[in-house]
Amino acid sequence: MAKYKLEYIWLDGYEPVANLRGKTQIKEYPRFPNLEEVPMWSFDGSSTRQAEGHNSDCMLQPVAVFPDPMRKNGVLVMCEVMLPDGKTPHRTNTRATILDDPDAWFGFEQEYFLYKDGVPLGFPIVGFPPPQGKYYTGVGYAAVGCIAREIVEAHLDLCLDAGISHEGINAEVAKGQWEFQIFGKGSKSAADQMWIARYLLMRLCEKYSVDVNLHCKPLGRDADWNGSGMHANFSTNFMREVGGKSYFEALMVAFDKYKDEHIAVYGPDNHLRLTGLHETQSIDKFNYGIGNRGASIRVPHSFIDNGYRGYLEDRRPNSQGDPYKIASRILQTIATVPTKKRPKR
Ligand code: ADP
Ligand code: MN
Ligand code: MN
Ligand code: MN
Question: Ligand 3 mean position to 26 CA, how many Å?
Fold first, then answer.
C-alpha cells in the first residue's frame, strides 16, 4: 500500500469566470487508483460563492483522474460540484449540462499570455517592445525572452506525463503570448483535460512568480496587439462519417440562428476581441468560410475535399471561456439539426 495525494479540483461560483480550486486528501491504495475508487468529498461552498454561510457544504463528485507529475504519488481528480444530496448538480456545474455523446470529438486551442509584474512576460515595465511580426512561432531571446520557453516546455511535459491528449504548442503573435492544443474523444473529455492543463500551467507558474492571463484582450481593444482565443474544433460521428453539403448548410443555418446563445457562453469581454480585425469576425455577425481565418467558423480545406465530412473550427470562443459551456452549446445547436439520411440522388 502507498499513500496517495489526491488533489480534488473543481470550478468555483465566481462570475463571469469561474476559478479553479483544489484541495488535497491522503488515501492509501495498493496502486494508482481508478475513478471508481476515488470517493466523493465535500468543501465549504460559502468560501467559493457556491453556498450561504449557514448551510455551506457542497459535494465533489470525481469525474476523471490523471497522474499528478508534480507530486510523488499524486492524483489529479477533476470533479463536478453537487448539492448536499450528492446527486443534483450545483447551479455552477456547467459540465453537467453537456449532452452525453461518446463519439463527439473536440480540439481546443488555448491561447494565453504569461504575465510578470503586471505586463506580458518580456515587455518592458514602461512602454512596449517592438511591434508584432516576429514573435509568432519565433525563436531567440528577442522573440520569446528567456524563461517563457522553459515554462512552456515544462508545461508540455507535465501534460504528457499526466496522460493528457496534448497536441502541440506554438509561440503566438503577441510577445509573451502562447498557445497549446488539447484533443479529446467523448463530449466531455477535451474540456476535462483543458481544465487540468490550465491547472497544471497555473501551478507551474507559481514558482516563477508568473501569472497566466487568460483575458481575451489584456492589452485593450485599441492596442495593436492580438487578443487570445480558444478556437473550438468539433466533430460528431455523423459529421465525420455521413456529412454532406446539405447537412453542412443546415448546420450553418442553426449556428447562425443561435449566434447570440453561442456568444453568451464563449467568454466575457469578447466584444473587445471580435472586432473584425486581427483574424476575427465581428461579434454581432455570423459567417463561415473555407480556410477563412476571418470567419466565425472556418471550414478546413480537408472538410470540402472529403465531401463535406470531418470537423469544423468555431473561432469565436475566447481564451477565458469555460470549455464545458462551449462544448455544451455546440452540441445543443448540432442536436437541433436532423441527421436523417436522405436517399442518394
Ligand atoms: P489552427 O491553428 O490551424 O487552427 P491547430 O493545429 O492549432 O489548428 O488546431 C487544430 C485542432 O483541431 C487540434 O486541437 C486538433 O485536435 C483538432 N481536430 C483535428 N481533427 C479533429 C476532429 N475530427 N474533430 C475535432 N477536432 C479535431
Ligand atoms: Mn492553432
Ligand atoms: Mn493561435
Ligand atoms: Mn485555430
Answer: 39
> What Å distances lie between residue 294 and 68, 95, 275, CA to CA?
38, 30, 10
- Provide the 8-state DSSP code for 35: G
Model confidence pLDDT, tens digit, residues 67-76: 999 999 999 9
Preceding omega of 317 cis (within 30 degrees of 0): no
Band (293; pLDDT cuts 50, 70, 90): confident
Map out the domains of the chain with their CATH numbers. Answer: 2-82 (3.10.20.70), 105-334 (3.30.590.10)
Query: Which atom of ligand 1 approaches the CA of 165 most closely?
Result: 16
> Are residues 132 and 173 in contact, defined by beta-carbon separation less than 8 angstroms?
yes
Please name every residue paired with 164 in a beta bridge, in sequence order, or none if there are none: none
- CA 87 to each of CA 47, 48, 269: distance values in angstroms, whole numbers, following the listed order: 21, 20, 34
Ligand 1 atom closest to 181 (CA): 14
Ligand 1 atom 2: residue of nearest CA: 109
Kindly report the pTM of this predicted structure.
Answer: 0.97
The three grid cell numbers given for residue 231, joined into one nine-digit string: 478556437
* Ligand 1 pocket residue status of 109, Cβ below 6 Å: yes
- How many A from CA of 335 to the centre of ligand 4? 24
